[in-house]
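Lecture 7 notes: from sequence to structure.
We start with the chain below.
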Amino acid sequence: MPNNLEASIDIAASPEKVWSVLADLRRMPEFSPTTWKVIALGGVRVGTFTINVNKDGWRVWPTSSRIVAFEPNKTVAFRMNENRTVWRYELTATANGTHLVETRTVDPKGIPAPVRAVVSAALGTEEQFEAALVSGMQETLARVKTAAER
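Predicted structure tokens for the same chain:
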């Protein structure tokens, strides 16, 4: 059974500054090691449909999502259409800036069996895949931190 995943980081910048980095979805390829492109179809808000192109080494694959939460300076979340997971960024003001948390939450129904089979065939075991996701989340947050602290 796939697990919920989480990574977090403290950033020496205001939530508004961190938000300005995260809310520009065109910049996601700068931060995420597996995101090649994000195209928001329409304005960025709850309900917006996105087309995403992902990469891992020589493997490239498309995904799509719908923005399910968009609260400026606080949260943005996407529900992936293919596997029903929700990717969320939560910003919390701290005395020194912002605490940023990235999560991947698995739908209570789980990830569809055909998607799990493709992941296993193309990207390794579920454990390997999730370890790579957590590593990618940590890298993403570190890159957001660098951009926001500039």
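Points to note: Helices lie at 15-22, 28-31, 113-123, 126-148. The two ends are 40 Å apart (CA to CA).
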